[in-house]
Write a structure and sequence with these properties.
heterodimer; A: 107 residues; mainly beta; B: 124 residues; seven-stranded mixed β-sheet; 53% strand
Amino acid sequence: SYVLTQPPSVSVSPGQTATITCSGDKLRNQYATWYQQKPGQSPVLVIYQDTKRPSGIPERFSGSNSGNTATLTISGTQTLDEGDYYCQAWDSTSRLVFGGGTKLTVL
Amino acid sequence: QITLKESGPTLVRPTQTLTLTCTFSGFSLTTSGVGVAWIRQPPGKALEWLALIYWDDDKRYRPSLESRLAITRDTSKNQVVLTMTNVDPVDTATYYCAHSSYDFSTGEIWFDPWGQGTLVTVSS
């Protein structure tokens, strides 16, 4: 089955740029979606169609997709950005797939 | 404002059938491009997509669970129901429903917003 691979954890200092990657051998032909999940809360959409930001999501969140890797970038990371981040893609055969998640720590 | 809320049993015995209901407001499940999905998350683990029902009543399932899942809708009640047969302790998870959007030009699907989730424990 199709797999999206994310690093288990990423650490960044406040104010710095956090980069979270998502790799999949079909991503060059797919769009990537990203969700943020804070402890005890439901996931929240932060990026869709590789680069689009829903209303209400701060401009410091951005996305890109090149080759087989999609990337979520958080510029000027704040402590409130801590949480788990999941990438997602849709594959016509495997249907919808989530990555394993990345725990972002801001310290 | 779109809202969704999951309801169902908190405890299910192994081999039984689990039935979960998603009650939503703020959108119509007959609007083109709209869907409702079910996603689950075992304690401490990653998200796992289960099923999706579209505005035209088309349905998609996680291939590995397809034989155990059924998703249906009641548009008059604004509800989507997920049934999972022959549950096992590994099915213990928080189950979420979410509003989905389908982009006709790209075929992409995304979920926004999500319900609060409901924890289902499978144990004897």
